[in-house]
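Anyone up for a design puzzle?
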């Protein structure tokens, strides 16, 4: 038994080093374009698993009281930025100062206003956002129908101003921004996609003009593809059939990572050429460890990291593991609130933050 324990202890050394190596690669995912290395991108996607293994290794070396403890500690500290992007503890309160105009913005992938149970959600969503006193609302996967068009939704939201960017070839689907403050100008951000889009609006708040950018980047389709693996027919299939399905999923994920990276660069060009206070929000379809998030974020701040509390996820599928919806903001703003309530009206939760101009 003693020999077995000794052998296991020796084995833990290379395991610690290998896991730390994967931690370094995962850290590099945020700085590496998927078009340059899709392998690094996939390792970045596994960040939660890698850090969990590092934590278990850390506990092991603490129990053993060995100096190898520094390896998992270094690996975890290297990715502390990622940990801060999914878990926060905010103790101090921050309130809107007297005389400041509140900018309470909601970003919501509304899933075409169809719930998983296939009932219409416009009334539920508009009532919630109106009661929450959101005064700027960005909808991704926006959809109109004969009963509720943009004007009707404006009245329901109590937001008299709106701008809609429809998808190519559609008069009902796209991205919509609704505002209590006047919209001075708006434009589409061309992503060269039939299913995903982005737009910007300039809004007058008091004496200051601000820009809001709303994005819905390339969809991963992972949930849809994963259902193929759960198909009872596949459960009884041979190894080759299973490999073919896994290969198909991997190839589509890889392609979508690359598309989002290009879209992120397009959005970032708009941010870099904007000379007024800016808020960027939307469904990035990528996690905080990704190149897409890091490239768009750049020097912007993440409202969750500023005012969030607890563990954060915004996508309701895949066991609540993914935060892929964000509100980022430039240095001219002060963030006073963040929350992402659990709502059953879409496969995403809304993300809500409040700001004022400094």
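Challenge accepted. My sequence:
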């Amino acid at each position: 038994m003693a020999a077995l324990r000794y052998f296991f202890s020796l084995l833990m050394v290379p395991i610690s080093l290998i896991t730390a190596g994967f931690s370094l690669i995962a850290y590099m995912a945020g700085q590496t374009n998927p078009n340059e290395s899709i392998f690094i991108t996939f390792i970045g996607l596994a960040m939660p698993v890698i850090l969990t293994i590092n934590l278990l290794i850390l506990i092991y070396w603490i129990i053993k009281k060995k100096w190898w403890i520094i390896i998992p500690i270094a690996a975890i500290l290297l990715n502390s930025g990622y940990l801060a992007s999914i878990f926060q503890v905010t103790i101090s309160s921050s309130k809107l100062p007297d005389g400041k105009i509140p900018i309470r913005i909601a970003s919501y992938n509304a899933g075409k206003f169809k719930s998983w149970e296939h009932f219409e959600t416009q009334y539920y969503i508009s009532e919630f956002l109106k009661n929450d006193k959101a005064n700027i609302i960005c909808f991704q996967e926006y959809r109109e129908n004969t009963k509720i068009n943009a004007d009707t939704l404006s009245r329901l939201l109590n937001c008299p101003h709106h701008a809609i960017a429809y998808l190519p070839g559609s008069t009902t689907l796209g991205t919509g921004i609704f505002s209590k403050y006047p919209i001075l100008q708006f434009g589409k951000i061309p992503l060269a996609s039939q299913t995903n889009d982005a737009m910007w609006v300039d809004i007058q708040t008091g004496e200051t003009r601000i820009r809001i950018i709303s994005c819905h980047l390339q969809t991963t389709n992972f949930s849809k593809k994963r259902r193929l693996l759960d198909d009872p027919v596949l459960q009884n299939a041979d190894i080759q059939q299973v490999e073919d399905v896994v290969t198909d999923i991997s190839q589509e994920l890889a392609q979508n990572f690359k598309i989002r990276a290009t879209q992120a660069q397009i959005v970032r060009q708009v941010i870099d050429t904007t000379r007024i206070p800016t808020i960027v929000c939307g469904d990035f379809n990528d996690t905080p460890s990704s190149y897409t998030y890091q490239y768009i974020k750049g020097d912007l701040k993440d409202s969750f990291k500023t005012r969030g509390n607890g563990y954060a996820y915004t996508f309701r599928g895949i066991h609540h593991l993914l935060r892929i919806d964000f509100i980022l903001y430039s240095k001219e703003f002060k963030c006073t609130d963040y929350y992402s309530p659990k709502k059953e009206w879409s496969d995403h939760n809304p993300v809500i933050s409040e700001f004022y101009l400094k």
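A detail worth pointing out: DSSP finds twelve helices and 14 strands in the chain.
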